[in-house]
Structure formats: structure tokens, C-alpha cells
Amino acid sequence: MIRFAPRFWGLRLAASALTLGIVLSPTPGHAATAAAAMRMPHVSVVATGRGSPVILIPGLSSPRAVWDGVVPGLAKHHRVYVVQVNGFGGDAPGDNLGPDILGGIVADLHALIGRERIAGAAVIGHSMGGLVALMLAKAHPGDAGRLMIVDSLPFLGTILSPAATVAMVEPQAKAMRDMQVASYGKPASEAMATATANRLALKPDARAKVATWFKAADARVSGAAMYEDMTTDLRPAMKDIATPITLVYPWSAGGPTRAQADALYRAAYADAPRVTFVDIGDAAHFVMLDQPAAFADAVNTFVGG
């Protein structure tokens, strides 16, 4: 069974939560906060503000609240579409209990872009949402005018080795998925939620939010989406994604260090024709929570570009 390097474990997935066997039980109260959301088979979307369009896609097990630090500022000059995957944030799972969750999210986003007439939108995706943004650019090149990918890789197996393949990763991904799905409906472990949040965020308030979000997600959706994320390899497609990419990635003294993160991400995106690299220090996977001011600056520069 493959073991990923611990210093990079929080790069794109909340997979450490799954390895620890955290039970992510839905919290119905969260759904009420998005009563005005546009409901689609795989996602819901809340739109706010006026101006050029910006789409925000959260990662595995994360609700739309992960973007709360940047939405008010963006909405002053942009029409902001804040996505939430069905089954996360306490929402009902919808069609995400079926196969091809990531493909379904891409299809919903494509439909949203067509219906709202916002082709060329700036698209920002974190973690699994970053992978979805790359998939959208691959499948529908005109949908996104530019991409900001936040702590995400074209293939998670790169953490293991540049030569890693889906076949190498799949057995562990399947075992983790099955463990996670089997935990649905059982009481959540506060200790495990805390341990997982501590791996993926550095600041106390950030860790508290992440732990709460994980416990509010539907374990069936989290497990299946995690499996798809781990077994999707976009490396062969990167050379054909002409959409400009801004790659935001964190580093810290506890690892990955700046040098380690630089090497990993520059190698992973080497084939993409147009990439700008933005590193943010003293931060972990949830960089927008650990360093909100620096992250907001990066977002403002990106949308202003």
C-alpha cells in the first residue's frame, strides 16, 4: 500500500481525515444558510455583487464558507458565484451519491456559465476545487478566462513520485473510500477531527473551522469524491490547457518548506503553457484561513489581471 510523504499530505485533499477514519456526519442547520442558492444536481451556487464574473469552488468536504474572507471584497466590483458541492456544508447529497461526482460538478458549472452568460469568468478553486477548475478548462476551454488554483496538483500521486501512476495510487484510494463511506451515520470523533484539522491549518481559529466543516460533510460524498480526486491524472492534458493559471501554494517552517513547495509545484505545472506562481508563507493547506490578508491580496491581483 502506498504511503504518501507526510510533509505534503495536506497539499490538495483533506485525505488525512479519511486515513484517520473521521466520521463526517451531516449537520442540517448549515443548509438553511444557503436557502437562496441556485440548486443543481451536483452543486448549489450563491451569487452576489455586480460586475465581471468570478466563480469560487471549494475543496473536499469544504462548504462555501471557506471563501468568506474574500467574497465581500470581490462583490464590490464583481458578480461572485460561490459554489458548494452537494453533500458538503450540511446540504443534501443530491446526485453526488452516484458515480462521476467530479464530472458532474464540471457539467453543472458549464451549465451555469451558459445560463448566466458568463463565459470567460475568472475561476478560483481550492484543493479538489482546483482540480475541478482544471477539468473545466480542459473540457470547455472558453468557460474560464483565467484560473487561480489554490494548493492543488494535476495528480496527487506526484507527491509519491514524478513517475507515479493511477494504478499505483488506486488500491489505497479505494481502501480509504470504502472506510470513509462505511463510517456514514456513526458518531463523529472530535479527537480525530481536531487531529486532521491540525494537519491542514496552522492557526487555531482556522483549525476550529476546518474541524467543524469536516464533521458537517456527508461521508458518502466525501469518500467517493476523495477517490475520484486521487485517481484523476490531468498531467497529460496540462500542455493543452491554454487558459492562464495562477498557482497559489503555501509553505511553512514545519513543512513543506518554501524550497520543497517550489520544487514540487513548478515540476507539476511545468507543461502548462501559462503559469504564474504565488507562494504564501506561514500557511498550510487552508491558506485562505491561515493568511487571509496575503491570500486576499493574491486574489485581488488575480481578478484585476
Helix count from the secondary structure assignment = 11
Structural class: alpha/beta
- Helical content class: 25-40%
Task: Note the beta-strand portion.
Answer: 15-25%
Which sheet architecture does the biggest sheet show? 8 strands, mixed
Distance between the termini: 44 Å
Roughly what is the average pLDDT, rounded to an integer?
89
Low-confidence stretches: 1-35
Radius of gyration: 17 Å
- Morphology call: globular
Tell me the total number of β-strands. 8
Q: Could you give the order of the helices and strands? A: HEEEHEHEHEHHHHEHEHH
Q: Provide the spatial order of strands within the biggest beta sheet.
A: 1-2-4-3-5-6-7-8
Structural description of this entry:
The protein is α/β, with parallel strands linked by helices. It is built from 11 helices and 8 strands. The chain has helices at about 15-20, 70-75, 100-115, 130-140, 165-180, 190-200, 205-215, 220-230, 260-270, 285-290, 290-305; strands spanning about 40, 45-50, 50-55, 80-85, 120-125, 145-150, 245-250, 275-280. Strands 1-2-4-3-5-6-7-8 form an 8-stranded mixed β-sheet, with helices on both faces. Strand 1 and strand 2 (about 45-50) form a beta hairpin. Helix 3 packs across helix 4 and helix 5 (about 165-180) runs antiparallel to helix 8 (about 220-230). The protein starts with 14 loop residues before the first helix and ends with a helix.
